[in-house]
Each structure stands twice: as structure tokens, then as C-alpha cells.
């Protein structure tokens, strides 16, 4: 089966519109973690994510008749922009159905590529249903975000570039997983050429559809998924991706929201670029893996998959990085409402710095306080 995909990946037409992105060393991360950490900079693509690869490779293979009727997708995210730009490049009409709740900036960037945006429903499901109604009516071709062999092959070109850009041994490649299109294409290529390289998926711990499938030995549908890393908030791994992943992915690591935030900061320090939450999963996974395996001086690659971040979320993220780096702990404590109780509590913290403090009068007997405490990096003793 990978052979079929290898041919498709080698054949994939992506460079009319996508660029070969750099594979750069993350110097300060490498130093801090005692390994050589490399970032595959897909955030530098024309639409700020790798999605343009799969979308273009799918569109370019349509028949003339399909091209003349136009394409459609339902997406509020990076896939919408990939389809819009690919369609513009090929002179194909594109219709993108988005939920009415989609932020204006995303609607605009899709319109800027010349696509027609239809706003429908409050959630993704309603938008998807409407897209299928439009297909019935107008004969558009549906372009899936991950569950399609040509899309998977387009994303697989990321791995093709990595292996040609870096010829030394690679211990592992860490790949973010949503519906699995990216990791499937990359795993097929890597395991065919260099089976010694570990392929490790990284998912948010509240959106882990590939990990759940690997555990169950079959695709499962998650009841709910967290949406912090919106680029990977998918309830079920794709059918085609699963056929590849079940045999070619070595393991899946999950990370918390705080760990993702900390990784966004790490990436910023090394590149001065802001990754979106999904884009930082690879780095978050690398940090966890190094701590667990205690490896040193290995070459490790993370896909930095995208940079479509809403600006207004930066404040939330920067606040949470302290927690993700385990430099700060937030405690909710109940103490007796009487003289001296607060002093006793402070003494119990020894010399740790207090970073935040909140007192609420509850009743005459006890008080509830919230405190942020520095727990590392200059906290102990030096407070
Ligand atoms: C789509 C996307 C992913 C997940 O890719 P899948 O092929 O669905 O697994 C990860 N990161 C970003 C930035 C994305 O846009």
C-alpha cells in the first residue's frame, strides 16, 4: 500500500503554488533540551499552512468537466484558504461554506483569494450539510480536507522535502494530527525510504482521535473535542489516513493546552514567528518525548504546520505559557478567616514568589484565596 502512495507523492504537483519550506535548526530549544531540534517551516507557505499542498494536488487532477463546474468545501480554517488559493491559481470557481460564527478575518482572507463565501449555520455540521445541498444543485466537486488519497499525497511532499534537506540520521519526526492527512502522507513516505526513523503523532489530550483509534485497533468517534487547537479539532481519524497510520505510525503523544502554549513561546524565541496552537504540537511533543526517553544529541524534526492565529488570542496564550513551562502554579486554598491564618499559609510556601493573589470573603469562618506561585526558574530561595 505505501508504494501506491509513494508514486502519488513523487508525482504530486504542488510547486506551482506551494514553496519548498526551509528546515531550520531551533538553536535555543536544541541547547535547552540537549538534542538537535529542527523545524519544518510550513507556516511560511503562501496561505500560512501546509494545506495548500493537498488542496492543489487534488484540484489539479480534476477532469476538465469537473473543473468547469467548480469546487466546494466546508471549512472555517486553513483548508478553506488552501482550496481558495489553489482554485484561483487554476482558474476554477470555488465556493467555501463557513459557519456564520467564523471570524471576519478568516472570511476576508478566503474572499481575497477570489472564492465565494457562503455563511450558513452556527456550527461546522450545518455548513457541511449545506455544502452537500449545493453539490446536488450545481454539480460542484467536494474537496475533502484530509480523507482523500490525492490530498494525502500532496501533504506527503512535506516528508519528501525533509528527507532531501537533511541527510544525517533522524531519530524521530513529530507530526500534528487532526484528521490525519498530513501524518498519513508523511508516514507513508518516511517508512518506505527510511524505516528506521520513528514517526510520532502529536495530539491535544482533549482531541486525540488517532491515539484513541490506535488503542482500540479501529477508528472511533470521540464524543467531544477541545477546540483550543482548532486546526486539529477532529472527532474521528479519516478512513484513508487510518489505513496508513495503523501500520506506519510508531506512537501518539498527547499534550495539554498549557504545554501547547509553552511550545508557542519556544517557537517564538527561536524564530520570532507566532505559531497557531495546532502548529506548535510537534514541538510540544518533542519536549515531552525527550523528558520521557532521556535521549541526547539526537536529530529530531517537528512540523510547524501553520500560523493562522487570531491576534486577540495572544494574551490568553502568553498568560498560560508560565503554567505550561511549570514556572507557575495556581492554587485555590481555603484558610480560616482569623488573624494569623494568612501568615501561616505564606510561611508554608517558604520563599516562593507570589505572582498573583485573589482574596474573596466567603463567610465568617473561612476565606477562599487564589494564589499564583512561582515554582521554578528562580522561584525557590531567590524569591
Ligand atoms: C489541518 C491542520 C492540521 C492537521 O492536519 P490533518 O491532515 O487534518 O491531520 C495541523 N495543523 C494545521 C495548522 C492545520 O491547518
Question: What layout of secondary structure does this protein have?
Answer:
Layout: H1 2-11, E1 23-25, H2 27-33, E2 36-41, H3 51-59, H4 64-69, E3 71-74, H5 78-90, E4 94-98, H6 104-112, E5 116-119, H7 124-138, E6 141-142, H8 149-165, E7 172-176, H9 181-193, E8 198-204, H10 209-216, H11 239-248, E9 251-255, H12 257-271, H13 281-293, E10 299-304, H14 314-324, E11 328-336, H15 341-348, E12 354-361, E13 366-374
Parallel strand pairs: 2-10, 3-4, 3-6, 4-5, 7-8, 7-10, 8-9
Antiparallel strand pairs: 1-2, 11-13, 12-13
Helix pairs in contact: 1-8, 1-9, 3-5, 3-8, 5-6, 8-9, 9-11, 12-14
The structure holds pyridoxal-5'-phosphate.
Residues 49, 51, 77-78, 145-146, 176-183, 231-232, 276, 278-279, 305-306 line the site of pyridoxal-5'-phosphate.
If you had to describe this structure to a student in words, what would you say it looks like?
By secondary structure, this protein is an alpha/beta fold. It has three domains: 221 residues, Rossmann fold (3-Layer(aba) Sandwich), CATH 3.40.50.1100; 91 residues, Rossmann fold, CATH 3.40.50; 49 residues. The protein is built from 15 helices and 13 strands. α3 crosses α5, α3 packs across α8 and α5 runs parallel beside α6. The C terminus is likely disordered. Bound molecules: pyridoxal-5'-phosphate. The site of pyridoxal-5'-phosphate (PLP) has 21 residues, from α9.
Amino acid at each position: 500500500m505505501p508504494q501506491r502512495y509513494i508514486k502519488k507523492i513523487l508525482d504530486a504537483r504542488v510547486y506551482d503554488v506551494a514553496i519548498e519550506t526551509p528546515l531550520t535548526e531551533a538553536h535555543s530549544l536544541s541547547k535547552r533540551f540537549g538534542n538537535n531540534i529542527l523545524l519544518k517551516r510550513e507556516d511560511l507557505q503562501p496561505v500560512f499552512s501546509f494545506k495548500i499542498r493537498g488542496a492543489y494536488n487534488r484540484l489539479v487532477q480534476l477532469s476538465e468537466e469537473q473543473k468547469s463546474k467548480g469546487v466546494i468545501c466546508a471549512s472555517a480554517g486553513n483548508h478553506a484558504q488552501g482550496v481558495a488559493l489553489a482554485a484561483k491559481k487554476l482558474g476554477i470557481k470555488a465556493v467555501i461554506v463557513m459557519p456564520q460564527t467564523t471570524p471576519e478575518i478568516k472570511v476576508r482572507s478566503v474572499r481575497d483569494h477570489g472564492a465565494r463565501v457562503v455563511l450558513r449555520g452556527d456550527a461546522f455540521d450545518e455548513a457541511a450539510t449545506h455544502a452537500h445541498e449545493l453539490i446536488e444543485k450545481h454539480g460542484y466537486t467536494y474537496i475533502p480536507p484530509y480523507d482523500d488519497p490525492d490530498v494525502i499525497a500532496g501533504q506527503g511532499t512535506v516528508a519528501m522535502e525533509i528527507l532531501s534537506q537533511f541527510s544525517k540520521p533522524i531519530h524521530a519526526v513529530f507530526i500534528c494530527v487532526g484528521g490525519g492527512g498530513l501524518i498519513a502522507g508523511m508516514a507513508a513516505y518516511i517508512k518506505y525510504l527510511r524505516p528506521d526513523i520513528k514517526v510520532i503523532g502529536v495530539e491535544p489530550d482533549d482531541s486525540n482521535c488517532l491515539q484513541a483509534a490506535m488503542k482500540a485497533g479501529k477508528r472511533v468517534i470521540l464524543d467531544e473535542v477541545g477546540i483550543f487547537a482548532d486546526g486539529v479539532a477532529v472527532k474521528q481519524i479519516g478512513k484513508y489516513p487510518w489505513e496508513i497510520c495503523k501500520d506506519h505510525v510508531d506512537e501518539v503523544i498527547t499534550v495539554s493546552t498549557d504545554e501547547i502554549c509553552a511550545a508557542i513561546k519556544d517557537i517564538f524565541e527561536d524564530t520570532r514567528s507566532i505559531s497557531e496552537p495546532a502548529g506548535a504540537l510537534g514541538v510540544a511533543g518533542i519536549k515531552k518525548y525527550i523528558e520521557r526517553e532521556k535521549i541526547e544529541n539526537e536529530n529530531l524534526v517537528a512540523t510547524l504546520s501553520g500560523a493562522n492565529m487570531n491576534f486577540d488570542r495572544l494574551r490568553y496564550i502568553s498568560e498560560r505559557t508560565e503554567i505550561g513551562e511549570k514556572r507557575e502554579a495556581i492554587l485555590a486554598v481555603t484558610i480560616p478567616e482569623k488573624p494569623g491564618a494568612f501568615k501561616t499559609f505564606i510561611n508554608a510556601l517558604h520563599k516562593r514568589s507570589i505572582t498573583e493573589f485573589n482574596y474573596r470573603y466567603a463567610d465568617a469562618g473561612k476565606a477562599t484565596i487564589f494564589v499564583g506561585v512561582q515554582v521554578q526558574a528562580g522561584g525557590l530561595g531567590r524569591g
